[in-house]
Amino acid sequence: MPPYDARGEENQGKRHRAVLIGVESYTGSRNDLPAVAANLRLMAEALTAEGTGVLDPDDLVVVPRTGGPAAVDPLVAHAALRAARDEATGLLIVYFAGHAIVRPDGGDLNLMFTESRVTRDRRHPFVDTLSWSDSVMPVLRKARADWVVVILDCCFAGNALASFSPAVDQNFALLTAAEAGVEIPPGDPVAGTEFTSALHRLLTRRTEGAGPATFTRLVTGVREAMEHLRAVDGHPWVPDELRHGDDVVLARAKGPALPLPVPGPPSVPPVPPPPEAPWWRPVADRLRSRVPVLSRRVSRTTGSSWRGPSCWPVRGPGS
């Protein structure tokens, strides 16, 4: 069957949502991630781009709020996820960029927020985080949306694949910035991270005739775009994914450019009407038409003395 299209006619009356979570500010020993602010901007642009975007600006929920404090509380992020889950009936997209951490065995991926910290408690080592398996997947598994798409741009993102457990009849796709166990560079404050920057290019720079950017095409494209890069410690940098369902459109095909108008023939200025004849012209014309008749009459009465209409007979003195 064709890929799900949030912009399709059959989905016009449905509600779509995208929750974009980016944590750039951290306390404690974690370094700040200034590239995250650029990531949020890039993802918002990609999803709402004119002509190719699958969402409207009003469909976006950005955490932290644009123009607000950079600090992000996990409870606020979790509430945003729950609200979007309850509202969306069409397409639901969740994006996270920030630090993440796993247990020593690689399990229990935890998304980290501004005040997150690691303790020595072996049972609960992570504080003020969101566990992918215990806090995020359970929320999204209950979504009413036709499709759920999650994109994780963080260290150890690929570890989320081990806990990927959508509902039996749920359409759900998960795209991770790297494979399990791989840490990734922090990115550029202006250009964003390599992964999100590549997604932005693939979603917005659509060429005419290329078709829509579906999830499966996006996976192939981002892997090709990043195949020359290396993650931390020289590891191959390979984005990973899992999908439950057919496919979903994340950027629409770019339509053909509107044809330029064909120039019409040069306009010909109207021919001005002839100047209006002076009032005396009709009188003169009537007189001119009568001159030959008058000439003939005069000739019959005076003989050869008539010389035309411009002279009269000359008489001598006293005549």
Mind explaining what this structure looks like?
By secondary structure, the protein is of the alpha/beta class. The protein has helices at residues 35-48, 74-87, 132-141, 194-204, 215-226, 281-302; strands spanning 17-22, 60-63, 91-97, 100-101, 110-118, 126-131, 147-153, 172-176, 213-214, 240-244, 249-251. The strands form 3 sheets. Strands 2-1-3-7-8-10 form a 6-stranded mixed beta sheet, sandwiched between helices. A 3-stranded antiparallel beta sheet has the order 4-5-6. It has a two-stranded antiparallel sheet with strand order 9-11. Helix 2 (74-87) runs parallel beside helix 3 (132-141). The N and C termini lie far apart (123 Å).
What does the oligomeric state look like here?
single chain
Q: Note the total helix count.
A: 6
Contiguous low-pLDDT stretches (5 residues minimum) are 257-264, 293-319
As a percent range, the share of helical residues equals 25-40%
Distance between the termini: 123 Å
How do the helices and strands line up, and which of them pair or pack?
Blueprint: E1 17-22, H1 35-48, E2 60-63, H2 74-87, E3 91-97, E4 100-101, E5 110-118, E6 126-131, H3 132-141, E7 147-153, E8 172-176, H4 194-204, E9 213-214, H5 215-226, E10 240-244, E11 249-251, H6 281-302
Helix pairs in contact: 1-4, 2-3, 4-5
